[in-house]
Amino acid sequence: VQLVESGGGLVQPGGSLRLSCKASGFTHAIAWFRQAPGKEREGVSCSNRSDGSTVYADSVKGRFTISRDNAKSTVYLQMNSLRPEDTAIYYCAADADLYCDVNGPFVPGDFHSWGQGTQVTVSS
User: Fold this and answer.
1) Are strands 118-122 and 9-11 parallel, antiparallel or unpaired?
2) How far is CA 55 from CA 6, 74, 104, 122, in A?
3) What values do phi and psi take at 108, rounded to 5?
4) C-alpha to C-alpha distance for 26 and 95, rounded to whole angstroms
């Protein structure tokens, strides 16, 4: 499955952005990860197709919302109240068999398909 992200850019603190990830085929779990310079890639949010459940990292709960349009094979990440520490390259990842457990972390190694990444910069 190929994934193509879009929607990154430069935004002021407190602003909003919406990222999109379009998949070329069937996926079950689709997640957003991010990686800031000098830091490890971290999971931001994950969506499960089967039951519509979602998982969020503590750092983005209440600010970010993941949603998916299965008819368009597209997942969105609405990011509100952005902070400078949200600055990173954001990656979309997907897997046809994975289920993101709401009680457990989701990690990069669990996903077989990755997008090329889109830069998000939060700065005044």
Assistant:
1) parallel
2) 21, 17, 9, 23
3) -55, -35
4) 9
Which three-class secondary structure state does DSSP give residue 5? strand
CA nearest neighbour of 105 among 50, 53, 58: 58
CA distance linking residue 97 with residue 38, whole number of Å: 31
In the block, which residue shows the tokens 């998982």?
Answer: 55
Tokens for 53, please give them. 């459940």
Contact between 82 and 69 under an 8 Å Cβ cutoff? The reply is no
Q: What does the pLDDT look like over 37-85, one tens digit per residue?
A: 999 999 999 999 999 999 999 999 999 999 999 899 999 999 999 999 9
- In our burial notation (b when 16+ CB lie closer than 10 A, e otherwise), range 36-46 reads eeeeebebbbb
On whether the CB atoms of residues 78 and 60 are closer than 8 A, the answer is no
DSSP per-residue letters across 57-88: -TTTTTTEEEEEEGGGTEEEEEE-S--GGG-E
